[in-house]
Every structure is written in structure tokens, then in C-alpha cells.
Specification:
- By secondary structure, the chain is mostly helical.
- The protein has six helices and no strands.
């Protein structure tokens, strides 16, 4: 993906419920925004992995990305930052 397209696909923040999961995964309170900048700099694959792990889908991030690729034809590994 060209740099320009990658820049346009970046989001400023994830939905609050995702941010709460990511904060709690780091041992923070769900409303503690002290590490949000660090969270937002994470690769999207890692974001999915962390959200899956927090929600009990331990080590399923890669499998889920594979299922999406096989079912929908969308390769999340190639569009992840």
C-alpha cells in the first residue's frame, strides 16, 4: 500500500470499548489515557492480538486474520500498519 494510502487509513483513536480493553490489558484502569499515544502507535495486527487475548481468545489473532482472508478475501496482514 502506498504511503499516502496508509496515512489516509490511519485513525486517530479506536472506539472507546476497544481502548478500554487495550488499557486494561496493560494493567491500567479503563479510563486511564496515559498510554493512549503508545497504544495508537501499535501495529494493527498487534491491536487485534491484544484485544483477542484480553477477551479470552488467547493466541487467536492470527487465526482470525487467516479466516477473514479465506472467507472474505481480505488480507489484513497486508493492510496492517
Amino acid at each position: 500500500m502506498p504511503t499516502e494510502a496508509r496515512e489516509q487509513s490511519k485513525i486517530e483513536t479506536y472506539p472507546e470499548y476497544i481502548m478500554c480493553d487495550l488499557r486494561q490489558r496493560r494493567g491500567l484502569e479503563e479510563d486511564d489515557t496515559s498510554e493512549d499515544q503508545s497504544i495508537m502507535s501499535m501495529n494493527k495486527n498487534r491491536i487485534l492480538d491484544e484485544v483477542c487475548n484480553w477477551n479470552g481468545l488467547i493466541n487467536y489473532g492470527s487465526s482470525i486474520r487467516g479466516w477473514i482472508r479465506e472467507i472474505y478475501g481480505i488480507d489484513l496482514d497486508n493492510i496492517s500498519e
